[in-house]
Amino acid sequence: MIETVLIVAAALGLALLIQAFLIKPYRIPSESMEPTLDVNERVLVNRVNYHFSDPDRGDIIVFHPPKGAEGNLCGVSHPSDQVCPRPTHDRASVNFIKRVVAVPGDVLTIREGHAIVNGKVQKDDFTEPCGPGADCTYDRPIKIPPHHFFMMGDNRGQSDDSRFWGPVPRSWIIGEAFATYWPPSRIGLL
Fold first, then answer.
1. 120: Cβ–Cβ under 8 A, 6 or more apart, which residues?
2. CA distances (Å), 8 to each of 18, 21, 23, 24, 25, in order?
3. 145, part of any domain
4. In a domain, 17, yes or no
């Protein structure tokens, strides 16, 4: 009996350590990453790899957005034809999942939902189109600040993202989503 209790306690402790430091499950809360990730789909997030390297364009990551992101609050005043260039100073307690479209030092504009980084349209055939409108085109460029990353959802017309609340500081990034595990029909690597 004591042996069984010790085995269960050790397994539970190991599972908690893995989740706290290595891999964490995460549920997709909204349609902002469709068609890549569906609402209520479950993904695994690698919490280790960004201790050794920085995120790259195209990575799908989980992070803390800036405080006020749920209300699309930008950290500074900016022209209406420019994405939010700076986040608020504090991070929110919630987690978001989005795709990195620009890294520190990149010059970014957005045209009909497509990220144009350093003058080149980024490959994004995995995205849902963004219709014409004020939330889809920002012709005035911004330069991504040092240690910040610009995030966008794959469902460009239905995503509250860095366009509205600014680039995310490196220290607010939790990890990279690397696989789906639920529902069973969608199991696979991202």
1. none
2. 15, 20, 20, 20, 21
3. yes
4. no
The pLDDT confidence band at residue 1, using thresholds 50, 70 and 90, is confident
Average pLDDT, the chain: 91
| Percent of all residues in the chain with a pLDDT value above 90, rounded to a whole number | 82
Compute the distance between CA of residue 73 and CA of residue 63 in angstroms, rounded to an integer.
Answer: 17
* Distance from C-alpha of 118 to C-alpha of 114, rounded to nearest angstrom: 13
In a domain, 150, yes or no: yes
DSSP secondary structure string for all residues of 70-139: GGT--SS---TTB---S--SSB-SS-EEEEEEE-TT-EEEEETTEEEETTEEPP-TTSBP--SSTTT-EE
Token pair for residue 168?
């995310």
Per-residue confidence (pLDDT) for residue 161, from 0 to 100:
96
By annotation, the residues acting in catalysis are 32, 98
Q: Is residue 6 part of a domain?
A: no
Domain count, the chain: 1
CA gap 6, 122 in Å, rounded: 53
- Tens digit of each residue's pLDDT (9 = 90 or more) over 23-51: 889 999 999 999 999 999 999 999 999 98
Residue-number span of the structural domain to which 124 is assigned: 26-189
- CA 1 to CA 3: how far, in whole Å? 5
pLDDT at 138 exceeding the cut of 90: yes
> Cis link prior to 183 (omega < 30° from 0)?
yes
